[in-house]
């Protein structure tokens, strides 16, 4: 049967676009659903500040009357300007195991990109680095996290068959929380504090707004992440949104800040209890009882697993061991809170500085994800 590609033009179709992922993965024990309302806001130009510098279209694949695939086509003009590229991104790609479907979806993105003057197609990528990115190519039997993509093992097979090549890989680690920090790690951390006249700062809720720490954190992330693959600077609108949406949910014990003698922020680490199981129980919905599962995981009965959401170090301090100070502060807190292991966020495989920070911990690289590219 012929595959038909239709552009999403109504809110009803957008809801079908979002829900296709839930249906495709509803019985999968490793997939973690996004929150439905968050996805509605992400795809809404009036709600997502990334549309200040992005444009997008969404496509659904039909076999007869049945939806069998979806994809978002995105042009991040800021990233293209930053890296001197003309690329159209594909994101939120899902499809049944039929090459006719995956081919038709990606051709729709290619065609739209060509019409916009693009020369290559790359993905999976979101609007920005704050969205999930990278197709899973290893670790299909590992529970996903709320910040990453889960996909079936046939996805990368389709990409290769369709002529896409590896553009970049990210790796992820499972890290055991040690019963005690190694003495050598403690000594080195204390030497670094003294040598560079640094101090560890524990954030208070009142300081986020009064002393503008939310802004300071995201300004640092912008600076630290600037050299990373495909990164585009967060706008003030995006920063305001992230401060409003996410910082109120963070247990401030799990936030570590490092400042210099003048009080300038030089490093930040943010972690939180894993919401993977809670999101599975919520089935992507806050109502009627999804909110209970999320609040329980955050504040009542925490899981044994934590997610390392953000680690950022000011560029001039990145080779001075300052990132060790974040874990010098946080690991004892993780121990007190009963966490047994943590999940790192995706790290570029070539970013040896970041991967070196796990050398003091028992760790295993258990997932790998990939961005693919093809000239169009």
UniProtKB/TrEMBL annotation:
Residues 3-184 form the N-acetyltransferase domain. The keyword Mitochondrion does not apply. Coiled coil: none annotated. PROSITE patterns: GNAT (PS51186). GO terms for molecular function: acyltransferase activity, transferring groups other than amino-acyl groups. The keyword Cytoplasm does not apply. CDD domains: NAT_SF (cd04301). Keywords: Transferase. This is N-acetyltransferase.
């Amino acid at each position: 049967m012929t595959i038909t590609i239709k552009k999403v033009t109504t809110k009803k179709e957008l809801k079908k676009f979002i829900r296709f992922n839930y249906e495709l993965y509803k019985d999968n024990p490793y997939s973690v659903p996004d929150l439905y309302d968050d996805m509605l806001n992400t795809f809404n130009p009036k709600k997502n500040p990334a549309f200040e510098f992005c444009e997008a279209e969404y496509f659904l694949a039909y076999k007869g009357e049945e939806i069998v695939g979806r994809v978002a086509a995105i042009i991040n003009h800021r990233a293209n300007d930053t890296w001197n590229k003309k690329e159209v991104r594909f994101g939120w790609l899902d499809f049944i195991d039929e090459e006719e479907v995956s081919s038709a979806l990606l051709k729709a993105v290619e065609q739209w990109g060509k019409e916009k003057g693009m020369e290559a197609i790359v993905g999976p990528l979101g609007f920005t680095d704050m969205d999930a990115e990278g197709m899973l190519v290893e670790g299909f039997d590992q529970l996903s996290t709320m910040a990453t993509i889960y996909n079936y093992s046939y996805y990368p097979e389709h990409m290769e068959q369709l002529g896409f090549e590896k553009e970049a890989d990210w790796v992820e680690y499972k890290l055991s929380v040690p019963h005690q920090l190694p003495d050598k790690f403690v000594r080195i951390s204390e030497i670094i504090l003294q040598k560079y006249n640094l101090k560890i700062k524990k954030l208070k809720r009142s300081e986020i707004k009064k002393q503008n720490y939310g802004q300071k954190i995201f300004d640092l992330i912008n600076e630290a992440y600037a050299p990373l693959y495909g990164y585009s600077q967060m706008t003030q609108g995006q920063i305001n949104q992230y401060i409003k949406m996410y910082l109120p949910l963070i247990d401030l014990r799990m936030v570590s800040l490092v400042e210099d003698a003048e009080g300038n922020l030089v490093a930040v680490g943010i972690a939180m209890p894993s919401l993977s199981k809670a999101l599975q129980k919520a089935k992507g919905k806050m109502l009627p009882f999804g909110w209970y599962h999320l609040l329980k995981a955050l504040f009542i009965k925490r899981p044994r697993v934590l997610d390392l959401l953000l680690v950022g170090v000011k560029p001039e301090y990145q080779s001075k061991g300052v990132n060790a100070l974040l874990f010098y502060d946080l690991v004892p807190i993780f121990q007190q809170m009963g966490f047994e292991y943590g999940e790192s966020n995706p790290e570029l495989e070539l970013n040896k500085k970041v991967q070196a920070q796990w050398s003091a911990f028992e760790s295993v690289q258990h997932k790998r994800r990939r961005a693919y590219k093809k000239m169009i």
